[in-house]
## 1
Amino acid sequence: MTKMKRLRSQLSAAIMFAVLMGITTGCWDMVEPNERSIWVGTGLDSAAGRKIDLSAQIAVPRALGEGGGQQEPYMVKSTVGRNLEDCFQKLQAKLSRRIFLGHRNAVFVGQEMAEKSMKRLMDEFGRNPRSNIRAKLFLVKGATAKSFLAESGGIEYFSTEKAIRQTRFNGINDKMTTMIFFKEVLQRDGMRPLMQVVAAGTEKNPQSEAEESESSHREIALFNNSAAAVGYLQEEEAIAALWAAGYLKDQMVTETVNGQEVTIDFHHMKRTLKSKIAGENVEVKLALRAQGIVDENDTDLNLFSYSDMKQVEQAFNQRIEQQMNIMIKKVQQKYKTDIFGFGEDIHRRYPKQWNQMKGNWDERFPKVKVTVISSITIRHIGERGPK
């Protein structure tokens, strides 16, 4: 009897294995790869009558395979619709292969649409199961998203890939550049989203380095709780804002010490917030920390000397605090949008008081007193000490 049970058990296992092998063999959705459109990037612009002008940067497999041919490795198709899904259906009619949004690596939003509001786009970003929710999100300043997709990618095949790589190599936390993260921040009561900015129309000659677009991290767009872009920060102010908001993980910084320049490669960049409520007043302590490696020292300071090294650290800390204070004051007084998440920290520490504040947080935010404390530490001084 025991032998019969064992045989039945083995037979059942064999049948189950055969069934599973049959199920898992082949493509899951029965659509062969050569029947899909390789959709690399999406452009979203405003159109008349509250409609959306959607553009798709689609790879051309034949051109990619030839390598170095005259045909561009991509094409840009566009259509106008009432919402994103309407646009997708109309665009599908223009293509010989099935649309597959899982390949989409980035979404570019034109300046006009971003400054009106992006709220109507948020639903599709998270609801559509075919969409790549980890796609990067960029604002195209000074032009349409369609025109950016049509540009050359320089040493990359696509302008989409160029923008993504610039962000990746500029020290920004990768997950914080995605469209799903933008949507998550927008749903919070005490924090407002920001977005990377790219410029279109500046790369007239791909062989000329002087005419290439600015690095994407050098400018950011600030959004309010209506998902509308309300302002922009450039260069040092943009880097300071990204650090204060918790977006940066590493960055190379050059400062003047004793009349000469020192460059430090910072990593493990962190920020912590500590809020305090005193009556009607709100105070926030912003603590910044980072570890650094000295990449270049043009001064006469001997970094093997403890006192000289501390002098460099002090100079950097003072400059960082000064830049942060100027940038935060500008965001508070000019743009009035809490990209730093001060409100979120109050929410965690004082949930009862926050319930009374969140309704008019945008009015209270400019009045918050902020204290900045920078504590950078040099962990490695490079290969040389004295000059």
## 2
Amino acid sequence: MAEQTELEHPTRLPSQQQQPESNATAFPGFTIQHVNNCCFSSWYSHFSQCTFKSIVIQPLPETFIDYLNADGIYLPSEVNHAPLAEYDVDSDTSSEVNQDVSDTEEDTPNPSFPTLEAHIISSITRLGGRIFPKLNWSSPKDAAWITFATTLQCTTPADIFLLLKSSDFIAHDLSHAYEECVDFEPGHDQDRPKEFELVLREWFDLAPSMQFRCFVHHGDLVGMCQRDSGNYFEFLKLNRNTIELDLCRFFDSKISGKFPDPSCKNIWLMDFNPFGPTTDALLYTWQEILESTESKLRIVESTAEAEHHAKSNFSHNRLPKEVFDLSNNASIHEFSERFKQGLLHAQFDKVSPER
């Protein structure tokens, strides 16, 4: 049995916004440095033995950032591939991505990123052929619905670009990562990070029932709960004590202690998230977490409780205008066919010699 855990840690603001539960609940202020400290490449090397193998491409070309920020969903043109330097956190070496772009590329409606695409293809191969992407802080999990498999699994650059272009979480990383920091001053070169990175993480088919969120306050583990709060899993009740003990041991040995240990067989670290009201407290309230002095695993105790917590993940996120235009009150099947045709039409527009 393998568990996956993500930690809520007082180091940065999240890319997914949640309304605070109470104005009376006080949290420590975040600074821009706190946010930068939780950038993926800042923590991965310290915990690489107990998380997924990953490759970081940095810095991303500014033309690619402009493409992600541009309105509309369209994929870059297919191009010849060229070598690209990489930042591979497994080998603790870094180098820059070639940012050379032709003068005509900026004038075309469908830009081309040959060196970036070539390196993505190479990295996907090195990671086993299947990956999931993220930028400095966030993965585009709010956009998983737009893929045919409704997951973040990617096997080509086009899969990655479609997810990144469709995600509000990615848009937040690009333009709003520092806005809630106490030292943020608009217009003082603080509107965005100086560099962006594309993280490609090895794909595993993880069981949602075995993913847990842990809360760390002042260096102490003060709460744990199942990540999928909208479903009841009977076996979690039967194994609650064992799972709770495993999570506590994992925190003590891998997170709190931070000492090297290559043997990490039962639990994988998924990510670090901020300790604050903008992060979903799931089966807790934030007031409970702040007042907690012991870490007890909370799970959904019944089907009735699961129905109470059930909600459509990320339903509050905006849908691209093109999706609304394609839907036009169609059935799910009709919408799917229209969406496929829309993508095919976009690809035809890019390669047609008459354009």
